[in-house]
Amino acid sequence: MTVLRISILFLLAAVAEIGGAWLVWQAVKENRGWLFAVLGVMALGAYGFIAALQPDAHFGRVLASYGGIFIAGSLAWGIIIDGFKPTTWDWVGSAVALVGAAIVIFAPASQADAAA
Questions:
Q1: At residue 64, does pLDDT exceed 80?
Q2: Are 86 and 79 in contact (CB under 8 A)?
Q3: Which segments cross the bilayer (predicted)?
Q4: Which of 36, 78, 91, 101 has the fewest CB atoms nearer than 10 Å to its CB?
C-alpha cells in the first residue's frame, strides 16, 4: 500500500506543479490572462501540500526523488499538451531520472536510519 500511496501522491504532485507552472507560463508568455496566472498559483500551492503528504518524513529525500517524477512528467505534459517531440536524449535522461528517483525513495532504510 505504501508504494501505491507514494506513487499516487507523486502523480498528483506532478499534475499540480507542472499544470500550475504551465498555467503561469500561458498567462505570461502567451498572454492568456490573469485567470490563468491565478489558477496556476493555486495549483502550485496545492503541490506543496500534496508533497507534504508523503509518508517519508525526510523533506530532502521526498523532493530529491520527486525531481525524477518532475522531469518525466514535464516531458509527458509537453508531449500530450504542447505537441513536444522528445529526442532520444530526452527519453534517456527521463529514464535515468526515474531510476534515480526510485533508488532514493524506495531503497531500504539503512541501520542508521532505522535507529533514528
A1: yes
A2: yes
A3: 6-25, 34-53, 59-79, 91-109
A4: 91
Q: How many domains does the chain have?
A: 1
Grid coordinates belonging to 53: 503528504
CA angle 91, 22, 64 (to 5 degrees): 55
pTM here? 0.85
Residue corresponding to grid cell 496545492:
46
Single-letter amino acid, residue 88? T
Domain range for residue 70?
2-115
pLDDT band at 58 (very low <50, low <70, confident <90, very high): confident
